[in-house]
Amino acid sequence: MADGAAGITSAMCELPQACRLMCWAHVIRKSREHRKLVLDKEKWLAIEKDIVNLQLVFNDHLFGSAARLMIMKWTADKDLDAFRKYFEDQWLLSLPFWYEGSANLSPSTNNGLESLNGKIKQMYTLCNKFSLSSFLQTAERMLYDWSLASANTPFAIQIEFTNDLATRAYQWLQKLDRTKVLHLGAASYVVPSSEPKMGTSLWVQYYHSILTPPLFCSCKYGLKEYSCVHSLGLIMMWDHRKVPQALGIRRGKDRPKKVKLALTKD
């Protein structure tokens, strides 16, 4: 998790299979600095809303689909061309991992780290360069102070629910139509939104139409070609992919006729 520094990006490229997370606060701040590329204020507010909504996407597949639709929407308006090119190049192609689903249950900003960096400069280094011996003494003092701070303020190991949130959750539960709560997966549920655009059943249908369950098999074909009879067979069994109609129909020995019979309609 970092800002858009080129050095950090280059270093992450050397780590195989590493995800270079981008600080969301930096993304929206830099995007707002380029708002001058959009002259119409109302259009800029709509763009900002699109970006904020895109950041809430909870997995990689949905992000790709949502980002593609957003770019198609912006492409239809010539006034947005300059900003669209900037945003697509910088935040969709170069540094795309700033949405919630890029690392679920992880911080989406590095504000805490930057706050600690500011405290180090204000309380310890005072923005000065040290010799090695002086730096080691300062580092030892920092570690001692932090060890005391961790004792006084223990690290949070579970979520603390406030009374205000509990009250609002109870009020929401009283209004909830429990028949609308759908079981999506092993530990996933779909519940009605407070600002519903569609029913939960229709949402689940759209969700499955966009996502094909990623199945990987350890057989030699699955490892080499990323698909095999086992994975595709299970997808067919769960009705995520229809069986081609041609399967099960034996083809005749003769070549198919190129000319249809007379008095027949196409």
UniProtKB/TrEMBL annotation:
Segments forming domain SWIM-type: 207-239
Keyword Zinc: yes
Keyword vocabulary terms for this entry: Metal-binding, Zinc, Zinc-finger
Highest taxon above the source species: Eukaryota
GO molecular function: zinc ion binding
UniProt xrefs under PROSITE patterns: ZF_SWIM
Protein name: SWIM-type domain-containing protein
